[in-house]
Write a structure and sequence with these properties.
The structure is a single chain. Strands 1, 4, 29, 30 and 33 form a five-stranded antiparallel beta sheet that branches. Strands 7-8-11-12 form a four-stranded antiparallel beta sheet, with no helix packed on it. The two termini are 20 Å apart. The longest helix has 8 residues. Strand 2 and strand 3 form a beta hairpin. It has one domain. Helix 3 packs across helix 4. The chain is built from five helices and 33 strands. It is mainly beta. It is globular and about 60 Å long.
Length: 468
């Protein structure tokens, strides 16, 4: 699609914004083209020399509602890696199984460096520190939690008798900072949307599981969202300007109704839910290729959002096309494909029906199946045409920034997005605590093409045209 945004590379010079001071009266500056690295401490040093870093603040990012030069950043479930191929049952290696996901408040200083102001541990409604271990009942991913070096995790953090699991555990990925000081976080397990108070204690929850008594009364996500890939759940979270409507984006296509039937395609979903009324809507997003990841969403207006769409490749390390893109999307004109859209169902003449478990079906197939089954090789256009014939249109999208072309973005996971003002955005990467799988059941240092260990790095980008 033709881009109407022209962007520069990351700001080439550090300029002190003397007119923009924080509440402490200290002026701040944006980082230069090399970005600003977030500080970390050493969490562990492994026998192979790998340093596990206690940082990991890159799974999501949010603008501070009132303080200029300040932002929040979120960790995920902690340092982990997939098990080696052939391990049965497959699962996830938890390098630090007692790790607690946390929220960091950061600020820019006058030199354009990033300083950690405060780290807040996430807690359940009883005040117990959460773990990043998987859920067993409400949001199971089917992942067996392993220790590094072998053996299954034996911790029982929620004391329910299910060792290795935590029913309130979060693989946190999406973040909204509310004006009242509270936070909403989305995750890759349930997916869950969890409301935390300013001290990090859970005060409400919304997920696809009607039987979960922790859910805010009358608020439930569509059941089909629970059919997400393991480790590819609700990767981004935003709130509309009304302050009441949460907007979540799924990272990749759902395994709907299952992995074999849905395959790996270019369809993913956006869900909106009004926290006051419980009203839900869903919209389709068409990715540029199968298996890509939508890893952030930020509201610009009631219908327009910025979205990160990326692959998992490193510039300079991997070959082929490398994608690290930011798109502007618009829900206006897109079709609400939630089963509650009775007008859409009625207009189909019986071809569209609602299934309580898998959502809308077109001639007995889920929307994900339609895209897969109609494909010609890797061309998914026929499936999208079949949906269009029923009046189903995805959101429109327009390129805002290509980070590979703009700055040779060196990281694999661009995951955080900070809309600073109409012409300025910040992006941050998930460094995975500076580790990656070694392919043999262990982990190694996660290195960039420069040979340096990956680190959470903030880049600030100027857009040639205003975003809003």
């Amino acid at each position: 699609m033709r881009s109407f945004f022209l962007t520069s590379i990351a700001i080439a010079a550090t300029v002190v914004l003397s007119a923009c001071g924080g509440s402490d009266g200290v002026d701040f500056a944006y980082p230069g083209a090399e970005g600003a690295t977030l500080a970390y401490t050493q969490l562990a040093k492994l026998s192979n020399g790998t340093e596990v870093r206690n940082g990991g603040f890159g799974s999501a990012m949010a603008k501070h509602p009132t303080l200029p030069g300040h932002f929040y950043a979120l960790t995920d479930r902690g340092p982990n890696a997939a098990t080696a191929a052939g391990v049965t049952p497959s699962g996830i290696i938890f390098v630090s199984p007692d790790y607690t996901p946390r929220l960091g408040l950061f600020k820019l200083n006058a030199q354009g460096q990033v300083e950690l102001v405060k780290a807040t541990l996430l807690k359940d409604r009883n005040g117990r520190a959460l773990s990043g271990l998987p859920n067993k009942s409400f949001g199971s991913t089917g992942e067996t939690p392993y220790l590094l070096g072998g053996g299954v995790v034996a911790l029982d953090p929620d004391s329910d008798g299910q060792t290795g699991f935590d029913e309130s555990g979060l693989d946190a990925e999406g973040l909204v900072a509310m004006p009242d000081g509270t936070f909403w976080v989305s995750d890759e397990y349930g997916p869950h949307m969890v409301h935390f108070n300013a001290d990090g204690r859970e005060i409400a929850r919304i997920n696809p599981f009607v039987a979960d008594t922790r859910n805010k009364a009358g608020r439930v996500l569509p059941a089909e969202l629970s059919r997400r890939w393991p480790n590819r759940g609700m990767e981004g979270l935003a709130v509309m300007p009304d302050g009441k409507t949460l907007v979540g984006i799924m990272q990749s296509n759902l395994y709907n109704p299952n992995r074999t039937a849905a395959g790996t395609t270019d369809i993913t979903r956006i869900v909106t839910i009004n926290v006051d009324s419980g009203a839900v809507a869903q919209y389709l997003y068409r990715q540029d290729a199968a298996g890509l990841a939508n890893s952030e969403i930020v509201a610009l207006s009631a219908t327009k959002f910025l979205v990160i769409e990326r692959d998992t490749k490193f510039f300079g390390r991997d070959t082929g096309t490398i994608r690290k893109n930011i798109y502007s999307i618009d829900l206006a004109g897109a079709t609400n494909v939630d089963g509650s859209n009775t007008a859409l169902v009625s207009a189909s003449g019986g071809q569209l029906v609602r299934d309580a478990s898998t959502g809308l079906l077109l001639n007995s197939k889920t929307l994900e199946q339609v895209i897969k089954d109609e494909a010609v090789g890797t061309d998914f256009s026929p499936g999208w045409a079949a949906l269009a014939a029923q009046g189903i249109k995805p959101v429109t999208k327009t390129m805002v920034y290509d980070a590979v072309a703009g700055q040779k973005y060196p990281h694999d996971k661009m995951e955080g997005l900070w809309v600073i003002d109409a012409n300025t955005i910040g992006i941050i990467n998930d460094d995975d605590f500076a580790i990656e799988p070694d392919g043999q059941g262990g982990v190694r240092q996660k290195l960039l093409h420069t040979g340096k260990a990956d680190a959470n790095t903030l880049y600030v980008i100027k857009t040639a045209k205003p975003l809003f």
